Amino acid sequence: MTIFAQRLDLGGAGPRVAVKDTIDIAGIPTRAGSRALADAPPASTHAEVVERVLAAGCRIVGKTNLHELAFGVTGLNDWTGTAPNPLFPGRVPGGSSSGSAAVVAAGEADFALGTDTGGSIRIPAACCGVFGMKPTFGRVSRAGVAPAQTTLDCVGPFAATMPWLVRAMAVIDPRFAPVSLPAPRIGLVTVEARPEIAAAVERAVAAAGLAAHSTTLPGLSAAFEAGLTVINAETFAAFGHLLARSPGEPEMIGPDVAGRLRAGAGTSLTALAAAEAVRAAFRAEVDARLDEADVLVLPTLPDLPPTLAEARGDRSAVFLTTLVRPFNLSGHPALSLPLPLGPGRVAALQVIGRRGGDETVLAVGERIAECLCPPARDLCL
After folding, report:
1. Is residue 287 part of a domain?
2. What is known about what this protein does (predicted)?
3. If you count DSSP H runs as helices and E runs as strands, how many of each does the chain have, helices first?
4. What's the number of domains the chain is made of?
């Protein structure tokens, strides 16, 4: 098992940064964790976000492993090997940005870059007990990031602490300027989740001394389904050609990802139009709730992350995305921060903010993280 797709030593003497292998680094092939891209040529230029990292004097220490083609939520990858979960080794690292979460959990990078199309930053952050941020859609440049065309995907950072996460956002987003919120208003979203996780979220908000009121998002389930429709269609459009092979040639894509790509091929224009209608309605619904609160808070995952054995069994892992995928569809910024549940058990809290209000999301996250005692990483063994 490996965290890195390739180790590097590139840039200045500043913070150590790892980069998901869907983000171009000049002179290095971008293989997206797939055998089908094993012979990809080296990238000719850096992705714009990599240029920003290097301009800030950071040192890129490697490209990180991932769930193949960034199209899966467990992080399991039989071609590259599955990135280990450093703090919770019996459980999946989460996907798709598994290596980027694992590398900061292992202390091998100060922050890491991942991408999030349907929870692919927040899920591995939750599974590995670290912090992960999906910015507002379009806020961080995706130039030089695969897939090239998307209405869902965002580049964002992972870090082992909130101060490092804030520092990372300042590096990759030229408009980012930290803010202070003395008394943020919290909308505590009622969702279907494991009772101990829901209780841990409520305790964390209360411990931070934040004024909270209960609220609901009735469109959450429909947004989850619509998000699946859109990601399936857009990922097939980006990578479906990799399924082609001559008679007798072996499959170049792992069976789990190949199956989802083929399913995406059947997405109709009618289904996409319906999904877009749901997108508009859910975005308006979230905006309305955020007229009554500075942020919304809910669990990142509805249940404990599956074990490696469970993920390799018949149990579907799509349930991991029920509370995260809707906010890719709507485009709102979303932060995941770890919550202590006890030895060997990890949960996470999610903070959702207004579109463009990434600074507010991180300010609330810092406030909550300061009050979590003991930290989740002290309870992992």
Report:
1. yes
2. Hydrolyzes indole-3-acetamide (IAM) into indole-3-acetic acid (IAA).
3. 11, 11
4. 1
Q: Is 20 a catalytic residue?
A: yes
Boundaries of domain holding 92: 4-223+269-379
The one catalytic residue in 97, 100, 120, 336 is 120
First to last CA, the chain: 21
Looking at the domain assignment, is residue 258 inside a domain?
no
Within-domain flag for 24 = yes
pLDDT tens for the chain, 381 residues long, are 589 999 999 999 999 999 999 999 999 999 999 999 999 999 999 999 999 999 999 999 999 999 999 999 999 999 999 999 999 999 999 999 999 999 999 999 999 999 999 999 999 999 999 999 999 999 999 999 999 999 999 999 999 999 999 999 999 999 999 998 888 999 999 999 999 999 999 999 999 999 999 999 999 999 999 999 999 999 999 999 999 887 778 889 999 999 999 999 999 999 999 999 999 999 999 999 999 999 999 999 999 999 999 998 866 788 899 999 999 999 999 999 999 898 878 899 999 999 999 999 999 999 999 987 544 444 333
Residue 52: CATH number of its domain: 3.90.1300.10
| Residue 71 to residue 307: CA distance in whole angstroms | 19
Active site residue 221: no
Q: Of the listed 34, 63, 96, 98, which one is catalytic?
A: 96
Is 96 designated active site?
A: yes
d(CA 184, CA 21): 37
Task: Determine, yes or no, domain membership for 263.
Answer: no
**For residues 135 and 169, is the Cβ–Cβ distance under 8 A?**
yes
